[in-house]
Amino acid sequence: MSRFERALEYVAAxxxxxxxxxxxxxxxxxHPDRGDLLDSLARGGCxxxxxxxxxxxxxxxxxxGGDRWRWESRMFGGAYDDAPAADRPVYGAxxxxxxxVGAAPRFGSAHLRLTADCLRRATFCYxxxxxxxxxxxxxxxxxxxxxxxxxxxxxxxxxxxxxxxGPVRVDADVEAIVLDPCYRGTAVESAAARLPxxxxxxxxxxxxxxxxxRHPHYRGPEFVALGVSLSVDGFLDPAVIxxxxxxxxxxxxxxxxxxxxxxxxxx
Length: 267
Prior knowledge:
Blueprint: H1 3-12, E1 26-30, H2 37-44, E2 46-47, H3 50-53, H4 67-75, E3 90-94, E4 110-114, E5 122-126, E6 135-138, H5 144-149, E7 160-164, E8 168-169, H6 170-173, E9 174-179, H7 187-193, E10 198-201, E11 207-208, H8 209-213, H9 216-219, H10 221-230, E12 235-236, H11 238-243, H12 250-263
Helix pairs in contact: 10-12
């Protein structure tokens, strides 16, 4: 039995509920203008975990003994404890609300929409794995949708986390890459066009500084001030924040992005 089969079996034994609705899709949100992710996808053909890339749009603890390693050991019964980095699962979220911007935009404005076939080799947890959840699901037993429907907190946090086990190939496992319209006519669109999957567009993220200033306590007034300083013609969008990478603390830019994702979604 392979590592990912052992992981699936371990999670299945701890799951309950009805089968998953196969109309739902796992989406993998990310920032398409950070590093060379799209070029790497075109060259290598597979989307890989932060254990391989050494980068993350959340916390970066993917190393032996780190938090991500420990969480995976707990969730998957140790199946990946001694696994090569490339064998580890890819993280996304289950798009229960069929949102045009993907299931977890807190991690980026773009997303890969995976095929229905990926559901059969996915495991799920609720809430996010960093909270060390006790509720799990697989395609055959999925009660997590009921739990997520009761979420009444920050919309950016109410997702069902997904882990796709086995390689995630762009040519076989991705229905489309879905981009923000601020990237039309840019290098991001050109890079996406080289991928062996459809390129689609969602309605976009765009936040005015007037709206930004109305929420000083969401992430903190210092991040409102940073967002105002970055704005172009009084607005923030994913490309504006992406252009500031390398000029500001990445954790600060992440919080500015949370403002845009939370209050600037046009869908």
